[in-house]
Each structure stands twice: as C-alpha cells, then as structure tokens.
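Take a specimen:
=====
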Amino acid sequence: MWQFFHKLGSPRWFYGIANRFMPWLLVMGLVLTLAGIVWGLAFAPQDYLQGNSYRIIFIHVPSAFLAQSIYVMMASAALVTLVWHMKLADVFVKAVAPVGAVLTFLALFTGSVWGKPTWGTWWIWDARLTSMLILLFLYFGVIALGSAISDAKSSARAVAVLVLVGVVNIPIIKYSVEWWNTLHQPATFKLTEKPTMPAEMWVPLLLVVLGLYLLFGWLAFYRMQTEILDRERRTQWVKALNKPQGAA
C-alpha cells in the first residue's frame, strides 16, 4: 500500500497510469450521462406539483453534488501537500479548481432558473444558495492565489492552507436546510432513507450523477497530465515524449 502511495507521487508514473484509465472514464461517463439526461428529459413523468420545470434537476443536482465533492477532494489533496509535500497533490488541486468553479456556477445558474417558477424569484439570500455562492468565491480564490505566487513551493503551501480553511463551508452547504429556516428543499438522495421520488425519476438522476463523476475523472486526469507536462518540461522523460518518432 505504501509503495503504491509513493508511486502515486511520481508525475511520470501517474502520467502513464492516467493514459490507461482515461478512455474508459470518458466512454462510460458519456454513456451514463447521456442515458440519464435523455431518460430524464424525454421519458420521466411530470412532477405533480412542478410539472416539467422540475426536469432541470437532472443538471442542477449532479452539478451541485460534484462541485462540493471536488472541493472535498481538493481539501484531502491539500492535506497531503502540507504533510507529505507531494507535488502531485498540488497538481490535482490546481488542475481541478477551475472545473469545480464551472460546476458551482452551473449549479447556481440552474438553481436560479429553477427558482423562478418555483419561488417566484431568480435569487434569494437562502442559506443553501448563499453558502454555494461562497463556494464559488473560494474556487476563484484558489485559482487566483495559485496564479499570483510564482514560487512553486510557496504557491502550493498557500493554496493548501486556503483550501483547508474553506472546507468548513462544505458541511454548512450540506446541513444548511436543516440548521436554518430555508426555502431550499432537503437533499434529493440520502444514504439512510429511501428516495421520495418514484424510480422513473431518481434512476435517471443517479445515472447522470455517476456519469458526471466519471467524466470529471477523465477531465481531472487530462488537466493533471497537461499540468505535469508543463512542470516537468525540462526532464528527460518529457523530452522523450515530445521527441518525434524515428529521430536519433
């Protein structure tokens, strides 16, 4: 186990492993996501209260789930950066932060579109919405801080500290609907409870969630590979990758 952990810290080893998994993640992610979206938008029944407007849930909920999960992953990687000083952990944080920001924005946007027919307004300073907006600012902060510091080690430490400080916002997002009086509905999926929606609604939603996580895995590997090639561009193994075939 420890040998695998140390290998995982090697940019060269990770680059090769990522190449093996990326095609599978991309294909499986696309299949599940498209199947879930088509099923949810075209074949799932109407909601008895919201009609067809609820169908935005098939984009909103997966985006919100993944936006929060990415930040938790970043916090885990930030801890590894501070404790074990693994370069690959910092590579992960900086590679996926823009992805998390886009998904957080998408969750906020689709939530606003859904809120207009449901609540009668595009935006309200609801606890869940406000904490998600804070998450978007945290992602922006991580991206800006990583770009502002030129020294790689100092940048990695500063970003890791910011990510770990900001992770306190994740339980606030999750439990905001229980801690405060809020318009936002409770969680769609709970591990300890049966879904309140019929299977014709929650099964396609689950497919989109799983598919989007797989697509994130593919995108994370791709962006990490790009970051690795930039950081290791002076090493022999990267020069060998860029060397034309047949060259002496």
The two ends are 39 Å apart (CA to CA).
